[in-house]
Amino acid sequence: MAKIFCVANQKGGVGKTTTTVNLAAGLAKIGQRVLLVDLDPQGNATMGSGVDKRALAHTVYDVLLGECSVADAAVSAEAAGYQVLGANRELAGAEVELVELKQREKRLKAALALVDPHYDFVLIDCPPSLSLLTLNGLCAAHGVVVPMQCEYFALEGLTDLVNTIKQVHANLNPDLQIIGLLRVMFDPRITLQAQVSAQLKEHFGDKVFDSVIPRNVRLAEAPSYGLPGVVFDANARGSRAFVEFAREMVQRVQRM
Ligand code: ADP
Ligand code: MG
Questions:
Q1: Which residues does UniProt call coiled coil (predicted)?
Q2: How close is the Cα of 221 to the center of ligand 1, in Å?
Q3: ipTM greater than 0.95, yes or no?
Q4: 78-102, pLDDT tens digit by residue?
């Protein structure tokens, strides 16, 4: 059975997409069968996997509206090593169209159930909002991976997300849990980051992943080559950290 994870944080620019594509590539590298679902109309995870969002015959939009299946819409990101259910600007309209539909929060869940046996992991890149799209991600998932930068407002920013996850857990998806907080773009030389990191450990204990993703320019450069950092430069510090993180995820899943 596939384990399904949302990568979510309602803030933009915190590293959600970088985490999704590199975790997907890291898991693929260690032999896992992975489907990446792009739920952000910006389509950055699609492009960052080497899939041209403008050339897609079908996207996650068609899947959410019930116009095609995941199997029909998913494409192979050859170089990255996993499959992609892509997104483009069209998806921005889904928010409005979904409101009218039955089971509007559970459409992705229903669609993914049909491809479950084909994957070990499904990773969902969420948009920077707590919208109906994100809600579809949260309803489909077993767990949420929360990437965060160790900055001053990091803990406050988490409150809304944690409350949303609690509500979804109580009302829509009893399976849902925060699988872990991932420290990203980390620079241990910055005292504040080390302090916030320690605070996170204090508050959230073993919900904080052991793996830490350093700030690393190779990870930022990779998308312009249409590749996850893990594939673009396997030896970069950031890439190695993501492969470590993939191993940690596999271990956590075994304990779920
Ligand atoms: P989000 O999806 O949350 O909006 P992104 O993953 O797109 O965030 O990251 C925002 C920016 O930060 C991007 O330009 C990305 O390349 C850069 N970035 C993300 N993680 C790292 C990292 N570990 N080191 C350096 N740059 C990073
Ligand atoms: Mg993003």
A1: 84-111
A2: 10
A3: yes
A4: 999 999 999 999 999 998 999 999 9
Helix (H, G, I), strand (E, B) or coil at 213: strand
Strands (E), the chain: 3-7, 34-38, 75-77, 82-85, 121-125, 143-148, 177-186, 208-214
* Predicted TM-score (pTM) of this structure: 0.97
213 pocket-lining for ligand 1 (C-beta < 6 Å): yes
What b/e sequence results for 177-186 when a residue is b if at least 16 CB atoms lie within 10 Å of its CB, and e otherwise?
Answer: ebbbbbbbbb
**How far, in Å, from the CA of 174 to the mean position of ligand 1?**
31
- The residue type found at 137 is G
The CATH number of 3-255, from 3.30.300.30, 3.40.190.290, 3.40.190.10, 3.40.50.300, is 3.40.50.300
SS3 state of residue 174: coil
The residue whose CA is least distant from atom 11 of ligand 1 is 13
Contact (Cβ atoms closer than 8 angstroms) between residue 53 and residue 41: no
Whether 15 is in the pocket of ligand 1, judged by its Cβ within 6 Å, is yes
Could you tell me the residue ranges of all domains in the chain?
3-255
